[in-house]
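The records we work with from here on pair a chain with its fold. The integers have meaning only within a learned vocabulary of local backbone shapes. A complete example follows; check for yourself that the lines match position by position.

:::
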Amino acid sequence: MGVVVTSADTTERDGGEDVLIDIKGLFARLKTIWADGGYTGEGFARVARRLGREIEIIKRSDDRAGFEVLPKRWIVERTFAWLGRYRRLSKDYESLASSSVAMIHIAMTNLMVHRLKPER
């Protein structure tokens, strides 16, 4: 949908704001955005409201220890795992953020094309 690559010193919230701005005119039917606890904060929520989106924060319980599958969060983690299978995305090989964005687009296009091909 939208890809923004930032430096490591950029917070999730700030990067999330960049993604929301990047997809501003796209996906008119997209109303709810699921995000983890790193996206709590007024700035991110303000940008989302200005763009007509609702933010739903998926938080893990402080009462439970260990791994817990969270609703909708597994979709993001699964996607990161798919991207990690591509050698150029498995480590930080790229010098430019634009190169990383291009590699992510190539990897996701490859995944989608392989899902569309008919079974033999």
